[in-house]
Amino acid sequence: MSSSGNDTTATVDDKMVESPSPSTPADSSLLGPWLTLPVLSQCCGVAYLFCWSAMYYPQLYLNFKRKSVQGFSLDLWLYNLSGFLGYAVYNCFRAHVQKVFDLPRAVKTHDVVFSVHGLICNILIGLQIYYYERGGQKISKWTWIFVVCACAVFLYLSFLAWLRLIPWDALLSANDESSAAFITPIQFLGTIKVIITFVKYIPQIIMNHRRKSTAGLAIQVPMMDIGGALFSGLQNILDAVYHNDIHIVTGNLPKMLIGTASSLYGLAILFQHFVLYRASSRYEPVSEVELGSLDGKGRPAVKVYQQAPMHISRRASNSVLDDPI
Questions:
Q1: Which residues form the domain of 102?
Q2: How many other CB atoms are found less than 10 A from the CB of residue 290?
Q3: What does the pLDDT read at residue 174?
Q4: Which stretches are transmembrane (predicted)?
């Protein structure tokens, strides 16, 4: 009898041990032995890293081929350079804090690699802007004012953190309620990247509207920007589902907002390229268009080399046409 009672108790204990804890990650085996949630998350991380990193190479190649940056907004470049500088520091710092204090990995290795790589690519584009033909383009005073003010705010917050009046990052003072209301220097870098993402494409869209053309901007840039945004958001969502922790999403809110803004502006530029200012099928691709001077006020003089229709002689087809786009 006692043995039977012990067996019953053991059975009950076994059932209690085998019952899953509420904090246990979601069962990813439902997707098969290979397509688990962590694997899908890693695939999304690689995909968004590829899209958001490779998106700068078409612009670098187009500038190199044309030996000119006409049609590419210099304001967009300065916004990108400033944003990636702050975002690289933000990701590197938070990744280090997460590792030291064993916190949830909201910022992943993909995020660090992406931000550092983006910074390097924009430095290379800056060298192209310095050496290649700019066609009279200049960075607007409003862009300079924005960047200078952002730097001043960061230096002020850093000074307060150096005096130990505020923490360097909220992750370092999770139990300090007195400093929870302050925006820290590291938080500001993530926030300013989001703000820059929401405004950086505006000068490019205005330039395209004034010129009635997207020539000079590699159209692969907004395409890959949209793809990177989709994969980036999907990775955070998969991680939150697997760990049953919404902090995975809210803890890296700048990444989600950046993806949303990138998608919206990317769609706007694609609409300009394929609908509003769609090139006729008789013209060469954008990379073959020779841009004239651009003063930012009127339309540039564009020389387009017409392809030869079947009913026109070869001699006539090689003529240069002045076609205002």
A1: 35-173+181-281
A2: 15
A3: 54
A4: 34-55, 76-97, 112-132, 144-162, 182-202, 214-237, 257-277
Evaluate if residue 129 carries a pLDDT over 80: yes
Tokens of 92: 């590197």
Q: How far apart are CA 229 and CA 191, in angstroms?
A: 17
**Any domain includes 122:** yes
DSSP string, 12-62: HHHHHHHSPPTTSPP-GGGG-SS--HHHHHHHHHHHHHHHHHHTHHHHHHH
Q: Residues 55-64, buried b or exposed e (16+ Cβ, 10 A)? A: bbebbbebbe
**How far is Cα 234 from Cα 52, in angstroms, rounded to an integer?**
14
Residue 237 has pLDDT above 70, yes or no: yes
In total, how many domains does the chain have? 1
Percent helix, strand and coil across the chain, each to the nearest 5: 65, 5, 30
Each residue of 242-298: pLDDT tens digit? 888 777 777 777 778 878 888 899 999 999 999 998 863 233 444 444 444 444 455
95 burial via Cβ count (<10 Å: 0-12, 13-18, 19+)? middle
Predicted model pTM: 0.69
What tokens appear for 272 in the block?
Answer: 């300009």
CA-CA distances (angstroms) from residue 81 to 17, 23, 167, 303?
Answer: 54, 41, 26, 32
9 occurs within a structural domain: no
Assigned domain for 112 exists: yes
| 218 close to 190: Cβ distance less than 8 angstroms | no
Kindly state whether residue 312 falls inside one of the protein's structural domains: no
Which secondary structure element, helix H or strand E, spans residue 320, and what is its range?
strand 320-322
Residue 160's Cβ-side half-sphere holds a number of Cα atoms within 13 Å equal to: 16
